[in-house]
What does this fold into?
Amino acid sequence: MAGWPTYCARCGGPAIALIEAGHPGTGHYRAEVTCTRHHPAAIRWASHVGPARTTPIGDQPALFDLPEVTR
It folds into this structure.
């Protein structure tokens, strides 16, 4: 689990996956983190340089952990 939440590169909403295609360092590489809404568009965008790979982003921490108050 990461120390900070990860957000969609397109809208700023909570990200669900990292989309990658190509090979880093070759000039033919694309990567983007996306939310549910932008996931299909990111796959289409990345696939212009090769087959797209999807890595799900697991549970993310809350930006501010607030204690539950019960009275």
